[in-house]
Amino acid sequence: MKKLLLAGGLLSLAAFSLPNPPVPTKRTTTNDPNTTAEVPQDNKLVIYQLMTRLFGNKVALNKPYGTIAENGCGKFNDITDKALDEIKKMGVSHVWYTGVIEHATMTDYAAQGIPADDADVVKGRAGSPYAIKDYYDVAPDLAVVVKNRMPEYEALIKRTHDHGLKVLMDFIPNHVARSYKSDAKPQGVVDLGAQDDKTKAFAPNNNFYYLPGKSFVVPAGYNPLGPLRGPREDGKYTETPAKATGNDVFSEAPHVDDWFETTKLNYGVDYQNARKGYFSPVPDTWKKMRDILVFWAGKKVDGFRCDMAEMVPLEFWAYVIPEVKKVNPNIIFIAEAYNPKQYKTFLEQGKFDFLYDKVGLYDGLRRLMRQEGSTEDITKVWKEESNGFASHMLRFLENHDEQRIASKDFATDPKRAIPAMTVTATLASGPVMLYSGQEVAEPAHGSEGFSGEDGRTSIFDYWGVPEHQKWMNQGKFDGAKLSAEQKNLRSFYARLLNLASTSDAIRKGRFYELQDANNLGKEYNQKHLYTYLRYTDKQQLLVVVNFSADKTYRPTINVPAEAVAAMGLNTKKFYTYTDVLNPGEVRNTLNLTLAPLSAYIFEIKPR
């Protein structure tokens, strides 16, 4: 972090008095260390992620390891017109329906023609939604009438579109359930593995990796349902030859902490021989996965969140994304990605539209929310990790993999999200995501079963989400049972996301950091305070946040001459500052009082 004053001096925005004439709005700031040369793209999707199994569940029993009959399960039909109305009012543009595709489960649907699964290779009573059992079908748990499960999902897609919202769903390319067998595949489709040469550990056109002469061994000590007995649980599972496990374990006996319930798909990479790639001719798995994506695109899905995208070869994405966009040019692909060194490559060569910003911004904000980090982590993100492609980074504070903000394992106090979520939503013009329950401070208390008590809402167990259920209010979706504090928090999220989705400066504007301009201020503790501008020729915004959980600061915010020039403002005029995040009176100065865990977004206008 640069500690010197800028050459142009530091000025309070209360009254500009530069001797130089106003600088044209179009000036670029390529050489200014407080900004980047990136021309922002308007990619401000506002995504609401919901676990379909959990969202509409009204049952509040929450018995550990409970069955679907005991603990209940949300359905496609529970996501009603009213629910979608209320989601839309939050400023949301896209809904990510998580856990839709049929996956392995301990719930028996054999009577409905779906083979039962063996508890020895299922995680949790409900099962992991990332252990896919049939890529061409949806989970029977989510249907009111099991035989109508696909029409019920199609009706949800239409209902979502009718409310002006778009639909995202999961694509899980790296692995499938050990029990994978499609009984819903379209006529003429050859199932994964059906034509594999199982005598070979690797063959370019095999769909799986094999361990010839060896049989799969259930991990020692695996106890699927704790004190209870799971269906067909006997510590055995017949799989000969054994297949490689989903997290790249090439052993017939994976560890209990491995993704042992899944098998790794073969994209033409010989992992056991220096990872040599066999990509020409196009491997069979590539074609099969292309056809699966085209199938769902045909259901009018608007985009895919691609699970563990870095675990399949980049060359596959470069092939398949353009193939699917031939069917729907507007369909979007979001990569769950964790290697900042590969971000640019996945965007440019892999053809992804958006990437997770977990390792950079999420991790940095998590530390700040826990009072462990510094705002320099944010600077590193825009200056280094996502410099040049910030408009393509999907930002969030919660998702199904991460701990709940209000949990004791993360931040405990949900108000700690106020400064962090403000940065998440406004730092750049890329997508922002909210996870269902985050907006009402769901703390993920209790041990659901397989998940244990880990600060996360289980994706493996049947469960009701208590604070979310208060907002849902038995399907009324009116928030009547929320506390005053929860209503205030939800109001904050709604104001922020609506502002992010409508503001010209946030959707399209350039970025200018003001840490260097303020770090010598007596009341400006740059470890806790973070300040920046977002601006276009139509709108100029100043964002100020305080991450401290207990300190109030009273700085006078300064904007340097370079930033004034970058915004194209007339330095001879006086300006007013209106907080558009927390509506209040119009200010004539930026002598601020920043309460603990506060956030402000001031619109700058001539007096």
Could you explain the architecture of this structure?
It is a single chain. The protein is of the alpha/beta class and 607 residues long. It has a domain at 510-606: Sandwich (Immunoglobulin-like), CATH 2.60.40. The protein has helices at 52-55, 68-71, 81-89, 149-162, 284-297, 314-327, 343-348, 358-369, 376-385, 417-426, 466-472, 484-502, 504-508, 515-518, 561-567; strands at 10-12, 46-51, 94-98, 101-103, 132-138, 166-171, 175-177, 210-211, 242-243, 262-264, 269-270, 276-277, 303-306, 332-335, 354-356, 393-396, 432-435, 510-513, 529-535, 540-546, 558-560, 575-579, 598-606. The strands form 7 sheets. The chain has an 8-stranded parallel barrel, surrounded by 4 helices. Mean pLDDT is 94; it is low at 1-29.
Write a concise keyword list for the protein shown above.
607 residues, alpha/beta, eight-stranded parallel beta barrel, globular, Glyco_hydro_b, GH13_cat_dom, Alpha-amylase, signal
Average pLDDT: 94
Rg estimate, integer Å: 26 Å
The major pleated sheet works out as: 8 strands, parallel, barrel
Strand residue percentage: 15-25%
Number of DSSP helices?
A: 15
**Strand elements, count:** 23
- Choose one word for the global shape: globular
For the record, what CATH class of the domain at 510-606 applies?
Mainly Beta
First-residue to last-residue Cα separation? 34 Å
User: What is the name of the CATH architecture of the domain at 510-606?
Assistant: Sandwich
Domain Glycosyl hydrolase family 13 catalytic: 49-500
InterPro entries: GH, GH13_cat_dom, Glyco_hydro_b
Pfam family, one: Alpha-amylase
Keywords: Signal
